[in-house]
Amino acid sequence: MRGLSRFPPKEVFGFLLVGASTTIVSYATYLILLLAIPYTAAYVASFVIGIVWSYAVNARYVFKARWSWRGMFSYPFAYTVQIVGGALIVYFSVQNLHVPKILAPAIAITLTLPATYLLSRWIIRRDRKHPP
Q1: Which stretches within 34-103 are classed as H helix?
Q2: Cα(110)–Cα(117) distance, rounded to whole angstroms?
């Protein structure tokens, strides 16, 4: 039980809220950019903006760390682990466990979210000397 105290519920809840806000910011950005650029460029740009948003808000408000270039450029690694791990889980769930395709992403999110949280926390806090 002592190990779990390293991950305060307020921090975990904040991480989940930032994830929800990142989805909203990314989608709103995509819709706005669609007015001016092709959808593929809008998607890529909104995805990058979502990562920057997530890093900035998680660093400042969730993990109480200073923003750094090292952290910013390392942060997409957490997303890479989430997308690759999630894709593998979806594939395995559907192919081997016969989980309905519509439910497989929910399983993937549930299983990859702890790793995404831990990686995000480590990336953001590894350079932390003093809170902002």
Answers
A1: 39-57, 69-74, 76-95
A2: 11
- In angstroms, the CA 107 to CA 97 distance is 12
Domain residues of the chain, as ranges?
2-125
Scored b (16 or more CB within 10 A) or e, 4-38 reads eeeeeeebeebbeebbeebeebbeebbeebeeeee
Question: Tens of pLDDT along 63-107?
Answer: 999 889 999 999 999 989 999 999 999 999 999 999 999 999 999
Identify the pLDDT of residue 98: 97
Q: Residue 14 — very low, low, confident or very high, per pLDDT cuts 50/70/90?
A: very high
The owner of tokens 């959808």 is: 39
Cα 115-118-122 angle, rounded to 5 deg: 140
